Amino acid sequence: MNLEQALTSINKISQARRGKELTPGERIAVLAAWEKIGYEEAIKLYRENFSPNYISCRAGPGVWKLLSKEFGCRVTKTHLKTVLENMLQDTSLTEQIQANSANPDSVPILFGVPPDTGNFVGYRSQVQHCIRLLRDHRNIFIDGPQGIGKTALAARIVERVMSKTNESIEICIWKSIRYGPLLDELLADLADMLGIPFGTGSSVNKLQNLLIRFFRKHRCLLVLDGAEILQQDQQQSAWDYYSEPYTDYGPFFRRLVNDQGNSSLIVTSRTRFLDWSDLHESGNAAEIIRLEGLAQDDAETIFEEQSLKDRHCWPALINKYHGNPLMLKVIAKRVRTIYGGSTADFLRVQSTIIADPLLLTLNHEFSPSSSMSEFECFAMKILADLMKEHDSVSYEEILQNIESHSLFRSTDGLLRTVSSLVNRSLIEETKVERKSKFRLSSVIRKYIEQDPQGFVGQKVQSVA
Ligand SMILES: Nc1ncnc2c1ncn2[C@@H]1O[C@H](COP(=O)(O)OP(=O)(O)OP(=O)(O)O)[C@@H](O)[C@H]1O
Ligand SMILES: [Mg+2]
Fold first, then answer.
1. How far does the centroid of ligand 1 lie from the alpha carbon of residue 126, in Å?
2. CB 3.0-4.6 Å disulfide test: which of 128, 226, 310, 394 passes with 344?
3. Where are the annotated coiled coils located (predicted)?
4. Least confident of 92-96, 190-194, 373-377
5. Which letter does DSSP use for residue 290 in this model?
6. Where does the pLDDT of residue 19 fall: very low under 50, low under 70, confident under 90, or very high at 90 and above?
């Protein structure tokens, strides 16, 4: 917004409230406030004949009073520019929103492109639950292993919210942060998308304030997809939950959860963010949804779509890959193209397969430069060995096994290791008769056994 636009907007307000435009003296007051100069200087600059005293005691206060009433907050010479910039943000967007809310059949405005949900199946209770949570203005953290459908679920929710006019969301913003933007880059990007004016070089704090103010004024749904990047390679011993360049995301999320009025945030991540667990447990409007795979019937739809044969073999496959839609899609394609659609042939010939995107991720997770400690890798190797005879094992069984290798590990230390691996979706936790049991997905187990890059061997050797 520039001075001319500011004057036009104030003139409109003045016309609407008082039936007349700004007087020349009032214009000088606004000019001085906008340019942040004294009244005397402004009078000289604009070659007027007013006394500074008149502008300061009569003309100026008239405008500040008018604008304070209009915006419902205190406006003075010092605050005028900031208030105007915040309140009269991108008028085209504001007008669009107003036009939208006047039309009962309107849909919210969408920024960003969520993936297509044409083939989405299942996760019905999660979709319903999330829609209810959004209705209650809550914020949602969706976590789960790679390919389990976090992005797809978030896209489904956006689709539902966009098509249901009674959800009263005005704006949806879909933003993938998989590329790892620094917080100020993300905030500037969001402000830009929403047409919120901000000066170049604005501080993170100022950008946050502008955005929060916007979220309070308009009911928005902000989706940040692929947030695991913010905690990737974070050492377990580090004091902050977030990796080094991203540490200011923590306070930002906390502020959004506590401060953004009717708007809501959805974050998806492969890693559980422990600060969200803290927020949830301390009664803030932060909910956590863990995705653990499609139910049998829903997963079968993926095989049906590829016209696979031998339906009786499907449950074994779905079970083996824990209903992971990414894995099931890769397998369905392989069965169709290589085995002529025969699931029985595939099962007979193929052992566990690791889809390429998962192989890349696992290579990264186990690489010497990753944050996975040698002991974490060792614990996973122990679990992989135990799983040759058991479906899942208890914490005590892992501990006993580690002790049998004459490796001292405090109970607390091992518990921390195990829960860190669970949080990072590297091992799975299930409840058997209310007791925690742990297991590895067949894909990770296969990776550990095959050790294609030799990374597992290296790490394990340095512990044993
Ligand atoms: N409920 C579903 N119905 C049908 N297909 C699905 C479903 N969920 C996910 N998929 C498909 O599985 C694949 C992986 O899904 P998605 O990208 O949502 O996983 P993700 O959990 O976000 O993975 P990542 O951790 O890599 O971000 C995609 O091709 C997606 O279309
Ligand atoms: Mg995703």
1. 14
2. 310
3. none
4. 92-96
5. E
6. confident
93 is a domain residue: no
**Within this chain, do residues 251 and 117 fall inside the same structural domain, yes or no?**
yes
Tell me: do 80 and 225 sit in the same domain.
Answer: no
Let me know if residue 94 belongs to a domain: no
Atom 31 of ligand 1, nearest CA residue: 152
Residue that finishes a domain, picked among 88, 119, 139: 88
Q: In this structure, are 266 and 342 located in the same domain?
A: no
- Angle ∠(158,217,8) on CA atoms, nearest 5: 120
Tens of pLDDT, residue by residue over 394-406, are: 988 888 888 877 6
| Closest among 291, 349, 293, 342 to 318, alpha carbons compared | 293
Closest CA to 157 of 148, 167, 147, 143: 167
3-state secondary structure 19-73: CCCCCHHHHHHHHHHHHCCCHHHHHHHCCCCCCHHHHHHHHHHHHHHHHHHHHCC
Q: What is the mean pLDDT of the chain?
A: 87
- Residues whose beta carbon lies within 6 Å of some atom of ligand 1: 119-123, 144, 146-152, 226, 270, 325-326, 329
Encode pLDDT of 106-126 as tens digits.
Answer: 667 788 889 988 899 999 999
324 with 413, same domain: the answer is no
Q: To test the ligand 1 pocket, which listed residue (266, 326, 441) has its Cβ within 8 A of the most ligand atoms?
A: 326
CATH number of residue 146's parent domain: 3.40.50.300
Residues 223 and 202 in one domain: yes
pLDDT digits (tens, 9 = 90+) for 138-180: 999 999 999 999 999 999 999 888 876 566 888 899 999 999 9
220 with 109, same domain? yes
